[in-house]
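>> received
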Amino acid sequence: HKSLAVLRQVSVAINVRNAVKDYSLVVKVLPTDDNERYSIKYKFKQLLKFSKEVQVYLEIVKPMFSICNDKLPQRKFFTPPVARVFLGQMDALNDCLVLENVSVTGFVKYKQGNDENK
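>> returned
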């Protein structure tokens, strides 16, 4: 079954101390109007899988960025090879993620079968 998640790419411009900062973001949510998401097995599994994804970003990835910034302040441009988390919510009803859109920097989703070194 395909993923039930809804993905949206958005561009945001924020004025911070008279300097405009541009961000490219990915917003990922599960549809909240799906009444079957708790009763149909594959949909419930998708719900649990997405909750785990949110949990990984909030409890592992976000602290990883903090550690990198705290421990390596001299390497200001060093970041872990994963999307930065701007917002994450995990309440089993309206779970959501707002992440840095790493595709604008050249990252592509891995597709099995496209390996050059077979």
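>> The mean pLDDT is 81.
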